[in-house]
Amino acid sequence: MGLLDKAAEKKSEPKVEEVEKPKRQRRSRKKEVEVEPAAVLENTKPKRERRARKKRTPSEPKVIPEEFQLAGRLNRFAVGLANFVINWGLIVTAIVMSAFLNANPTWIIIGGFLLAITNIVVLPIFMGRNLGQFISRTKYINSKSQRPIFLHALMNNLNFPFFLLGLILILMGSGEQDYALLGGGVFAASIMIIDAWLCKRYLFQETKQGLWDIIFNAYLVKHVPSGDETGWLAKLEGLGDFAEQKFKMNK
C-alpha cells in the first residue's frame, strides 16, 4: 500500500501545478488590468502651463525733444555767470573782507547763504528755474519734455563748493601726509573739472551736457515765455527781457 500511495502522489503533483499556474496568471493579468488605467490617467493629466514671460518693452531713446532748441553759447555763459555771482558772490566777498580787511562779515555770510539757498533750492522747486535761467532765458528739460527733479538744480550748483572743499582737503592732506584726505580732495575737486571741461567739451560736445546733466537726463534749452505770466513769475521773466535788450542773447 505504501508504494501505491507514493505513485498516486506523483501522478497528482503535475495536476496541481497545472491547476495553480493558470490561477497565478489570471491574478497577474488582473493586476495588470488594474494598473493600466491608473498609468493612463497619470499620462493624461494636463501639464501646468508655464507663465509666459512678459517681454520688456524697449526704453525710449534719451534724446532732446524736437520741439526744443539747445541754448546757445552766450546763453550758457550768462546762466553760469549769473548763478555764480548770485550764489557765491556775497560769500566770496565776506571771505576776502575777513582775510584782508580784518572785518566781521558774519551778516554778509548769513545773507549769502540765504540767497544761495533761495536760488539753488527754493526757486527750482516752486518756479522750475533759478535766477540765472530767468536772466538768460533758458531752462532745463529731460527727454520727456518735463523739468528734471530739483536735485539736478542742487547738484548742478554745488560744483564750486566741491572744488573749494577739494582744495582745502588737498592742502590739509599734503601737510599731514594723509592719503585719505588727499584722495577725497582730488575726488571733490575733479567733479567741477569733469562737469565743465571733460563732459561738455569732449564727451558730449553736441548736446553740451555736463556730469549732472547726464546723470539726471537734462538738457539746457532756450525758453520762450508764453506772455500769460502774472505776479512774481512775470517779474522774473522781466529779467530775461532786460538781458535780451542789453546783451542780445536771443540771436
Could you walk me through the main structural features you see in this protein, from its secondary elements to its overall organization?
With 251 residues, this protein is mostly helical. Among the domains are: 117 residues, no CATH class; 57 residues, no CATH class. Helix content is 67%, strand content 3%. The protein is built from nine helices and two strands, in the order H-H-H-H-E-H-H-H-H-E-H. Helix 3 packs antiparallel against helix 5. It is globular and about 55 Å long.
In short:
The protein has 251 residues and is mainly α. 67% of the residues lie in helices and 3% in strands.
Observed structural traits:
251 residues, globular, mainly alpha, 2 strands, two-stranded antiparallel sheet, 9 helices
Oligomer: single chain
- Kindly, what is the distance between the CA atoms of the first and last residues, rounded to a whole number of angstroms? 141 Å
In which range does the helix fraction lie? 55-70%
What does the average pLDDT come to? 80
Portion in strands: under 5%
User: Poorly predicted ranges (pLDDT <50, ≥5 residues)?
Assistant: 14-23, 28-33
Class based on secondary structure composition and strand pairing:
mainly alpha
Count the helices. How many?
Answer: 9
Radius of gyration: 42 Å
3D shape: globular
List the helices and strands and how they pair.
Layout lengths: L1 H42 L29 H28 L5 H21 L4 H6 L1 E4 L8 H7 L2 H18 L2 H25 L7 H5 L3 E4 L8 H17 L4
